[in-house]
Amino acid sequence: MPESTPHQAFKVAAAAKISAAKSLARKLSEEQKAAAAAARAGTQRNANPGKAKELAELTKAQATDLAKQAAQADSLARAARKAEQGEPHVLELQRLKTENEALQRLVLQLASNKADAERRLAAVKDKFSLGVAGDSMDSSASADASKASRTKSKGEEASPPSLSTAEIQRLASAASAAGNRTFSVPEGRVAVGTTIRLYYDRAAGPLPAAEARPTIKVGWNGWETQQTLPLRRVASLEAGEWWCADLGIPDLLTRAEFVVFDEAGGVHDNNSGSNFVLELEGAVSEQQLHVRRLELFEAAEAARRRELEAEEGRLHQESMVAAQAASKAARTAFRVRKERAAHRAAALAVARRRRGLEDLTAAPQREGVYAWLGGEPRAGAHATLAYNLRAGPLRGRDSAQAVIGFDNWHLKGKTVVKLEPLSDAQVRRHGLSSGTWVAATVELDEVALVVDFVFCDERREAWDNNERRDYHTALAGAMADAELAARLARAALERDADAAARQEDLAAKRALEKAEIKYEAAKARRAAQAAFLYTRPTTPRAGEAVELLYNPDLTTLRGRPEVWVRGGFNRWTAGNFPPQAMRATGVGGFHATTIQVPRAAHVLDLVFLDSGDAHGGFTDDNRGLDYHLPVAGGQGALDPLRVVHVAAEMAPIAKEGGLGDVVTALGRAVQEEGHEVEIVLPKYDCINYDLDLKLVKEFWYNGVEIKVWKGIVEDLHTTFLEPCNGMFWVGRIYTEMNADRHRFGVWCEAALEYLRHHAEKRIPDILHAHDWQSAPCTWLDCGTARTAFTIHNLNYGADLIERAMGATAVATTVSPTYAQEVSGHPAVAPNHAKFHGIRNGIDPEIWDPAEDEFLPRSYSADTFTEGKAAAKAELRAKMNLCEADVPLVGVVTRLTHQKGVHLIKHAAWRTLERGGQFVLLGSAPDARVQAEFNALAADLARQYPDRARLWFAYNEPLSHLIYAGADMLLVPSMFEPCGLTQMIAMRYGTIPVVRKTGGLNDTVFDVDHDVERAAAAGMAVNGFSFEGTDGPGIDYALNRALTAWYSERAWWQEMTERVMRMDWSWAKPALEYIELYYKALRR
């Protein structure tokens, strides 16, 4: 074996030390189990049921206590393991020290003879010190490898040498004569990498005779890993009761030992506490074992990563093909929507025109006043209009002109024609009455129904407009309404063709971007999971076997002696299978088993356990969500979820706060994952219903007529329920709290009545209620639907929220940190186990600097330098700030105490003292707070007239300009359930400076303090944060940001690009919500 490097020896020593301590812990655990089983068996033989029950309960309590102790020790070791990602030397030393101490405590707790355990631990330390002082030894990959099972041996696939019955009888007799209960074939030392046949004499040991089921448990490398095999009876052998089993010996071994136990009674034969030991030929030393394991682990890990990367490449290619198809479909869908919109607008225009003509008095002529010469005028033709100058207000004028229009003057364009005198012969030929007639030829519009006209003199001083009713004549041959609508639609499409082409390109581009975002979100989830769970092939295929690999060391099963898996398919709806044992692979801590995937499978569902008991012991169920692996090639299709949101708000049509944004954005994101989504909303009288809304039915509930309206809002099917009792005809969404509790309660009952009995589609799988307004839906009769409930604002309706928390299947709030912060609230605490924090997202199509109409120059992560410079210049011009090479700090917020108004004021002065510029957009609902900021604005204007500006009015374009033009955005909230401004700022390349609370903590990772936290979340550092609520607290973050801008400009540019590339869309949160929906369905 080649000489190891000092660094490798460092790793090997640590791995050996930890491995030996863990092995000893397992062995002591086995010994304690054997003692308990023997005592239990003895009690059973004495036929004392009471004593047996007492001992069984004691044993169970001991096992539970040991499990808790093991979990504590594993928790300490897991915490220390984080050091592997940090400073390599100092942190790894600390990790090793912590893990070793934890394992030593575990050994002592498991041992009945602590003095003996301490002696054995001391021997372990001496044996594996390798000249390294104390516990200060390095470990990385080999620590994982040291927990592995035996490597697969060539002998496992072979048979032991064949001996005659006489030869075997000779060996048995010799063993009996020597007082040995075991022997092996071939006799003598056991060669590694071979297969032997191991014999055991039950009659010579403590195992009971009645209904014996002897089983051998082999411990490889000091019980580091184990293997269990049933023994079979060998009736042909005499001088005892011999049983045997074929045992494959691994290639890489230092030690092999075994015990025999009876499965029926649990009695163990451990050779009087010394175990049965196989004398090995070709064994390696402890150091050689761990060096080799390190090599195997690194090679296997490299191969595993190549497999995963190859599959990821295939999935990316597949996603890009799908993205191109989605882009093409987006173009088609845009054209269809555009054409439908044009036809709908044209049909409405024709209908409005028809209604506008209903009350007109249209006549082909008026005797003695005007006439159309040559017959009735026809649409699209030329006709001659004659007028009698003596007939009215133009009497005495010697000339006149006519003003011509169409369809009661609604069609665009008016023409003025000069009327020329008619000769007497022309007057007689056309049968006109006596008078002074003048006439002109008029071109009639081909799409018009009516021609409109009035007369005036050439100076337009005298008018004949039929006493202000104008003159009108219906046109013959006018187009039918349908033909006219089609004609108008075509004209509109041709007129807007260039703009439509740009919009179509944008729709296609956004479809590609959305597909890429969804792929990256799924990729991140796969990468995080692949560290401890993956399959071969990497994507399972329906109808084929798949090898499942799982590393318990990185999960809640860390340190458990056994690993089992149970599972099912298609979200537990088909073909569930009971727990089956997983074998240690010998590499990287992974355990493996093979699963046959049914042909109709689309999803493989998994839960991992530490025993074959599906309802006891430790489990890894992914925090209650279980693990779900996609399966390719399944027959049929997996039914999509039907999700109905019952909510008081929906953006953009009924929006008071963030609730409306979440309902719309989450609904769209889940729908884009292939599920069916519907929104149920009150039909407020204050909504601008500029959509194709249809009344589809009415029903009665509790004596009130409920009208059901349907429409499409932001691509979501939306149902508006209108109780005809005036409850929602109040001119606004919210009124007074007590009144609102009553009216929204009544509306919830009506919504459930609609879903149970009057909806066109089936009862939803998931009914998602939001905040106190729709909380009653969780405890009222919602049929077979399961409920999800989201808390957006805990400041209102806490009693309703508390009741909803108790009734709902799953509950969420808008960020993980906020979920922790409110977990002790009386409305949440009793049901904290079902409560999950899921970050809100932003709409990347609305907040897109590459397509933002409010910016002077569009930009992306590749072109932000010029784009942000242009935005900054325009922002300064709008705010009357001077041009200077200084940082610009922005604030966009409501000025309330929740938003940290005292810190905002402090930050304004601090920014200016540091030479920066400060802008604010926002206003205060509290008059006293607004007065304070008015005074601040005046003070700043006096002292820093060209460096600070506060804008106290709503201004959407200005908010976009601040997000783009500022260098940093300040969000010092006292509490913030989620927050959107910090995510919008990063989308525009502006660095956030925030207080560590709620969603701000989940989205902003401090550049100096959150490197590890960001890595654990799969993110990178992206801003500056602070924890205090006073001036020094915010100064700590703001000063660091300002200093970095001044002194580290290149780094700042790198950070700007980094934050712009971060994904704050709804792609990841939607996947988390879908998992929770499926969890809710598991009753």
TrEMBL record:
<dbReference type="InterPro" id="IPR001296">
    <property type="entry name" value="Glyco_trans_1"/>
</dbReference>
<dbReference type="InterPro" id="IPR013534">
    <property type="entry name" value="Starch_synth_cat_dom"/>
</dbReference>
<feature type="compositionally biased region" description="Low complexity">
    <location>
        <begin position="134"/>
        <end position="148"/>
    </location>
</feature>
<dbReference type="Pfam" id="PF00534">
    <property type="entry name" value="Glycos_transf_1"/>
</dbReference>
<feature type="domain" description="Carbohydrate binding module family 25">
    <location>
        <begin position="543"/>
        <end position="632"/>
    </location>
</feature>
<keyword id="KW-0750">Starch biosynthesis</keyword>
<dbReference type="Pfam" id="PF08323">
    <property type="entry name" value="Glyco_transf_5"/>
</dbReference>
<keyword id="KW-0808">Transferase</keyword>
<dbReference type="Pfam" id="PF16760">
    <property type="entry name" value="CBM53"/>
</dbReference>
<feature type="region of interest" description="Disordered">
    <location>
        <begin position="134"/>
        <end position="165"/>
    </location>
</feature>
<comment type="pathway">
    <text>Glycan biosynthesis; starch biosynthesis.</text>
</comment>
<comment type="similarity">
    <text>Belongs to the glycosyltransferase 1 family. Bacterial/plant glycogen synthase subfamily.</text>
</comment>
<keyword id="KW-0934">Plastid</keyword>
<feature type="coiled-coil region">
    <location>
        <begin position="93"/>
        <end position="127"/>
    </location>
</feature>
<dbReference type="GO" id="GO:2001070">
    <property type="term" value="F:starch binding"/>
</dbReference>
<dbReference type="GO" id="GO:0009507">
    <property type="term" value="C:chloroplast"/>
</dbReference>
<protein>
    <recommendedName>
        <fullName>starch synthase</fullName>
        <ecNumber>2.4.1.21</ecNumber>
    </recommendedName>
</protein>
<feature type="domain" description="Carbohydrate binding module family 25">
    <location>
        <begin position="380"/>
        <end position="476"/>
    </location>
</feature>
<dbReference type="GO" id="GO:0019252">
    <property type="term" value="P:starch biosynthetic process"/>
</dbReference>
<feature type="domain" description="Carbohydrate binding module family 25">
    <location>
        <begin position="193"/>
        <end position="281"/>
    </location>
</feature>
<keyword id="KW-0175">Coiled coil</keyword>
<keyword id="KW-0328">Glycosyltransferase</keyword>
<dbReference type="InterPro" id="IPR005085">
    <property type="entry name" value="CBM25"/>
</dbReference>
<dbReference type="GO" id="GO:0009011">
    <property type="term" value="F:alpha-1,4-glucan glucosyltransferase (ADP-glucose donor) activity"/>
</dbReference>
<dbReference type="InterPro" id="IPR011835">
    <property type="entry name" value="GS/SS"/>
</dbReference>
<keyword id="KW-0809">Transit peptide</keyword>
<keyword id="KW-0150">Chloroplast</keyword>
<dbReference type="GO" id="GO:1901137">
    <property type="term" value="P:carbohydrate derivative biosynthetic process"/>
</dbReference>
<dbReference type="GO" id="GO:0004373">
    <property type="term" value="F:alpha-1,4-glucan glucosyltransferase (UDP-glucose donor) activity"/>
</dbReference>
